[in-house]
Amino acid sequence: MGVNPQSPVLELDHAHDQHLLDTMCTAPASAFQPHDKIRDLRAANLFLSLTTIGLFIVTLSLLAMEKQSQLCLHSLLLDDDANVCNGTKLAFENQLCADLEVPAPQAGGNVTNGYIGALEVDVVPNTLPFYQSSMCPVNVHWHLGSEHYSYGQFDENGDGPHGNIPRPEWAARTLTEDKHEELQAGFRCHHYNAADPKFTTTYDWKHCKGMDIGETYEVHWPHSASGACGTVNQYQTPHYDGIFCKLDMDTFSTLAAQDIANAIGVQSQVFTVVNDESYFYPDMMRGMIVDEKMGMGQDVAFYTGSTTGDTRSNEVCSMYTPITWQVDRKCHLISASSFDKLCYDMKLQRDDMSNDLHPHGSRELVSDDLVANNQARKDLR
Ligand SMILES: *[C@@H]1O[C@H](CO)[C@@H](O)[C@H](O)[C@H]1NC(C)=O
Ligand SMILES: *[C@@H]1O[C@H](CO)[C@@H](O)[C@H](O)[C@H]1NC(C)=O
User: Fold this and answer.
1) Could you tell me how many helices (H) and strands (E) the chain has, helices first?
2) Which atom of ligand 2 is nearest to the CA of 113?
3) 9-57 tens-digit pLDDT
4) Could you give the CA distance from residue 138 to residue 145 in angstroms, rounded to a whole number?
5) Secondary structure percentages of the chain, helix, strand, coil, to 5
6) Is the terminal CB of the chain with fewer CB neighbours within 10 Å at N or C?
7) Half-sphere exposure of 187 (CA within 13 A, CB side)
8) Which residues line ligand 1 (CB under 6 A)?
9) Ligand 2 pocket list (CB less than 6 A)
10) How far apart are CA 316 and CA 329, in angstroms?
11) The pTM is what?
């Protein structure tokens, strides 16, 4: 566009621009004084040229951003295919333990210091912190009561608002009356005191479901080197999708038992939930709480076993084995708000983790003949 105000082309442009101005803006033409008209229009012309280009660029980038965000929203939230881990679980059905020719070491077992399982295995557990083996947490979930057994911490002498479970019959001890519950429960810790309000005062749960103050829960953080580590798809429910995200059956079948124990593992920590903010831990999402001063994650049992849950027992074995277990032997107090914050964080994940926002049932304590004999002890620092 020319800059000579005498140019007829420019006059034409002025008229054109005035028309544009009238249609685009609500400012009436009478706002311009007649004697200033040319100068004003010249200025308006220059202004408009610049703003038009500017507006054009802004519009384009807004459109691009909108398209981008629509694309992002679409691919992140609406498109099932974008969750690259969905359905990647490799399916291994539970088997009758007695039918197995090759023994399948199980979890959770006794993790009391000094305990050694009775199932002879060649594989050793991965005793490094999992992040040092390219593993990342791919899920977090918890069980009602403890699946593991740590004498003096979570065992038959613990208690809670719904009582405890007895020492198993196979461990040759007298049985007490079992409490009937909807979920198959595990052992409770020794902290519970019905006279102390922090174990009894109800909490207004906003995000977790089916939780009780004073109750014991065993939290599991499955880790995998084949997870979608560092991406929006890292955390998955079911956790098997997280574990096997980048592992297909062909590759899996080339792995030796030791490769599996090195690359797949679960961190486990047992808590009694209290209504007391002095036990608040803001981040239960990224793994076991390790705090030297509080004695958390300091006394850890290492062994190889399987996945757990109440579909497995001492008759029905999990075939997801041998994976490494790193189990904190101590039971810790934790605030209800810590769990509720965890559930909040879980709701923020790309995958729908709603199936893990409540406690799961516990497997019965694994009998000695199904527990690997490779227990190791080491500080996780
Ligand atoms: C994920 O996979 C399952 C089965 O593999 C399928 O039923 C489901 O529709 C898929 N999508 C989501 C978002 O879960
Ligand atoms: C667990 O192991 C400890 C140490 O070996 C032992 O004293 C205890 O009786 C075991 N508990 C059960 C239930 O087997």
Assistant:
1) 6, 11
2) 4
3) 434 444 444 444 343 333 333 433 444 444 554 544 444 454 454 444 4
4) 22
5) 30, 15, 50
6) C
7) 30
8) 80, 86-87
9) 110, 112, 114-115, 149, 151, 167, 171
10) 26
11) 0.79
